[in-house]
## 1
Amino acid sequence: MPLPPPPDPYADLADLVLNVARLIRLRTPAEPDVVPLTATERQVMRSVDLDPGCAPSRIAERTGLQRTNVSTALRGLEAKGMLTRTGHGRTVTVHPTELARTNLTVLRGAWSELLGGLLGDIDPGTITRCTETLARLEQRFAGSDRPSAS
């Protein structure tokens, strides 16, 4: 009988993050006022929300998506009224619209209600530390907070 693999906290964390994200999406109520987005559109919108006025090349860099996929998502988001593009050629910048801000506010409210109901008994400081750790991880994936070489 083979031995179980040794514990791996990084693999365990990745597994849990992926599963919790899936469960949050499944349990987020379908709000009539929320514009449905594809997975790629969600990634692009998150990048635009975090960095309004960014260039499409920065979105591709930050999300790890191919430029052609970013362009397709930008066209779809623009058609849905979620963002605007200004400029021409290499000077294009992308901005969220009021509809995008409203969409995000409704979703954040639903997520807060969902997680508050599940985690209301946990110390808020613990939630804050977990959020800070995940934010740092996201920044490092985006390349904006790389650890220094020792």
Note: The CA atoms of residues 86 and 93 lie 5 Å apart.
## 2
Amino acid sequence: MMIDKIAVAVTAILLTASPLAQAAEMSSTAGTPHLGATDLKALTDARVGIIKAALQLTSDQEKYWPAIEDAIRARAKSRQARLERLVELRDNGPLEVLGERNPVELMQGRAEMLGQRAADLKKLADAWEPLYKTLTPDQKKRMSFATYAAMRGIRDAIEHRMEPEDDDD
């Protein structure tokens, strides 16, 4: 069954993502994970690979894929910039940074960042639309499953690495 094959592929990718989550933990300070550009690229490559493999695009559908992959990678790049900014704030002492900033400017900056995230998501949705219209019902099911499983598994792997170890053992 196709879903079984996809489940095996997703599991393999998630096992690959686990060392990436560990690298995030090891490169962090003060308990806040920080993925480097190489780690985030690997996670993005895994996500793109999972979704594309699950879809099993026809030759007619392949023409839509580059725009989708570009949009996924653009969102990942924006996410990396946000994470780097958070690390910078953490390293500079958030209370000092906040104490020196005008609260209105902070809200305006946050609004700009949310606007960029919205624009990135809109670009992704716009890129997906033409391909999605051509997907068979089976491909749509595989897309939903692969997207959910991949993102859930990667998130769980990262969260698992962030949990404090029990010293009572």
Note: Residues 103-134 form the longest helix (32 residues).
## 3
Amino acid sequence: MTVATTGRLGSDRLGGAELGERATLVQFSSAFCQPCRATRRVLDEVAAMVPGVAHVEIDAEEHLGLVRDLGVTRTPTVLVLDAAGVIVRRATGQPRKADVIAALGHAL
């Protein structure tokens, strides 16, 4: 996962989804994206393992304004947010569980 450019997301920009108490994993997906399904499983597992971490999945096609604002060019794209909603890490493609856990270390 790469270090993200500055940015902040709140529940208002995430379709009303609440941020995690400690961190949030935001996944941009599309309907026919096979790696998105595997990414969903990995992020759900990590969120279940780490207290205070939430997983929010955003349909990229339904949120084109947000996709453009954040420069999302492919799915899956995963953003790691700290408790305040600041983007601390960003990755495209299907992540490995170990990489997601390591990236969370920068948010916690």
Note: Residues 34-49 form the longest helix (16 residues).
